[in-house]
């Protein structure tokens, strides 16, 4: 069904007449895509969004909260710290819920705006555009870069290539540090890496992510989107007739052809300047209709609007538009079952996260019975059972706790009931419980241990068994 929508859109983009496809891009001859730098509203928007997320990516690990790094996946301690809240491996379901919610939100947005994620938010696209920006500053415009590719090796070519790869590698190294800064204390990381003082594993992981960044953004670029990204393959399943995708209005643009400015022409509005192809990071010609390679970056929209402006034609020959809009139909998106399905699924997941957070406890308790003996009889004929309480303080502050015992009998805790546990620490606390045999109902009696936190009154309880002689 979704493929039918896709093909409908493709058909509608090619309805009036068969579009003569003329690929002027040198992509096909050299196999390498050098894109023309494009300015315009959408490119400004993309640069702004990318800039914001890049700043967040690099700066978030430097934010401190309650004296600690605010966001830290501390693998050595098996804990994830997020602004004073500590998640332990047993709490990681919440992270799974967050990822599932994010996936449903992505699907939800895709129903309306197609692959907007790919064009404006995806790290692969962001880093690729940064690398192209550096390449353009060092090697020059698109045509100069193609010429440099073909030119024989010279001192100038060597200098430019060296400079470009050093700049790419530097950004890759910072990216590797930026990523690993979420796993080790960020403030020491950069200093340690650049002074060669980091441990072997930290250095290895930083370099691993640096090399991945360098290869992805410098060399693979659109190949990742075309051949590796699973989202590119299944996103069309979320499209419907109201999904806004970058589309060429063939009924207005054809028959295309070159002409002089300010001269009347009987041709369509496409002046066949080929700019839309030259700016495309995946090397496609959007005039051929909707293609899975299109990442919805909007570069061709800006390029074409620039040409339309020069020729005094109305804007948006290429634009973000839907199949319904192109056919002049209304866009009742609320009728879409996908809108409802993904929206409801996202809401359910948000509720699941809220319930999970509400039920989270800052104390963890495990009660283990003494394996050496079921019970002991004291000199004054009372019955004694021994337990080990494994109590974990899941907060990032030292906390005071008090232990209580309760059950069907009057149990008495022998020893100190108050204890202090350091942040994140687990204490193995041996306790002995005493009971009068005449008050015990049988050989196996129910007993409940409660550990209460004296700071915020949260508490946790666990049941166990108290044994007595037959
Ligand atoms: S066709 Fe246009 S929107 Fe799609 S990837 Fe190419 S430039 Fe970006
Ligand atoms: S940029 Fe616009 S006018 Fe130029 S070739 Fe592409 S569609 Fe035609």
UniProtKB/TrEMBL annotation:
Gene Ontology MF term list: 4 iron, 4 sulfur cluster binding; metal ion binding
4Fe-4S ferredoxin-type domain sequence ranges: 260-289
Pfam families per record: Fer4_18, Fer4_5, FixG_C
UniProt keyword annotation of Ligase present: no
Alphabetized Gene3D superfamilies for the sequence: Immunoglobulins (2.60.40.10)
Keywords: 4Fe-4S, Electron transport, Iron, Iron-sulfur, Membrane, Metal-binding, Transmembrane, Transmembrane helix, Transport
Membrane as UniProt keyword: yes
Membrane-crossing segments per the record: 45-65, 94-114, 166-184, 196-217, 339-358
Listed NCBIfam families: ccoG_rdxA_fixG
PANTHER family listed in its UniProt record: FERREDOXIN-TYPE PROTEIN NAPH (PTHR30176:SF3)
Designated name of the protein: Cytochrome c oxidase accessory protein CcoG
Organism in which the protein naturally occurs: Shewanella fidelis
Taxonomic lineage from the root: Bacteria, Pseudomonadati, Pseudomonadota, Gammaproteobacteria, Alteromonadales
């Amino acid at each position: 069904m979704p493929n039918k929508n896709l093909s409908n859109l493709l058909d509608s983009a090619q309805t009036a007449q068969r579009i003569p496809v003329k690929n002027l891009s040198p992509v096909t001859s050299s196999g390498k895509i050098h894109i023309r730098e494009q300015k315009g509203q959408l490119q400004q928007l993309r640069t702004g969004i990318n800039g914001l997320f890049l700043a967040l990516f690099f700066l978030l690990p430097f934010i401190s909260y309650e004296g600690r790094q605010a966001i830290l996946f501390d693998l050595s301690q098996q804990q994830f710290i997020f602004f004073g809240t500590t998640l332990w491996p047993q709490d990681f379901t919440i992270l799974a819920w967050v990822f599932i919610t994010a996936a449903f939100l992505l699907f939800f947005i895709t129903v309306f705006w197609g692959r907007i994620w790919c064009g404006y938010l995806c790290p692969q696209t962001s880093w690729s555009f940064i690398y192209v920006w550096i390449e353009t500053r060092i090697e020059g415009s698109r045509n100069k870069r193609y010429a440099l590719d073909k030119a024989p090796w010279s001192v100038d070519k060597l200098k430019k290539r060296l400079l470009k790869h050093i700049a790419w590698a530097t950004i890759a190294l910072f990216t590797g540090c930026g990523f690993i800064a979420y796993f080790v204390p960020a403030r020491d990381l950069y200093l340690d890496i650049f002074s060669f003082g980091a441990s072997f594993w930290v250095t290895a992981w930083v370099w691993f992510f640096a090399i991945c960044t360098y290869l992805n953004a410098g060399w693979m670029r659109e190949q990742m989107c075309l051949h590796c990204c699973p989202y590119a393959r299944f996103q069309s399943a979320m499209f419907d007739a109201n999904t806004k995708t970058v589309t060429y209005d063939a009924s207005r643009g054809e028959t295309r052809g070159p002409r002089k400015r300010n001269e009347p022409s009987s041709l369509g509005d496409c002046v066949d300047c080929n700019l839309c192809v030259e700016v495309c990071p995946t090397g496609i010609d959007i005039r051929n209709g909707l293609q899975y390679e299109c990442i919805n970056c909007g570069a061709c929209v800006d390029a074409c609007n620039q040409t339309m402006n020069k020729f005094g034609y109305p804007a948006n020959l290429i634009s973000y538009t839907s199949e319904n809009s192109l056919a002049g139909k209304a866009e009742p998106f609320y009728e879409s079952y996908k809108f409802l399905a993904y929206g409801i699924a996202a809401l359910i997941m948000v509720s699941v996260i809220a319930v999970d957070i509400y039920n989270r406890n800052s104390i963890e308790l495990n009660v283990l019975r003494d394996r050496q003996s079921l019970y002991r009889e004291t000199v004054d004929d009372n019955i004694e059972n021994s337990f080990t309480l494994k109590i974990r303080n899941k907060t990032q502050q030292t906390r005071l706790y008090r232990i209580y015992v309760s059950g069907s009998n009057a149990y008495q805790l022998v020893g100190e009931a108050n204890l202090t546990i350091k942040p994140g620490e687990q204490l193995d606390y041996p306790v002995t419980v005493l009971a009068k045999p005449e008050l015990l109902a049988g050989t196996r009696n129910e007993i409940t241990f409660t550990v209460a936190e004296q700071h915020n009154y949260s508490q946790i309880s666990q049941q166990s068994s108290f044994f007595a002689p037959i």
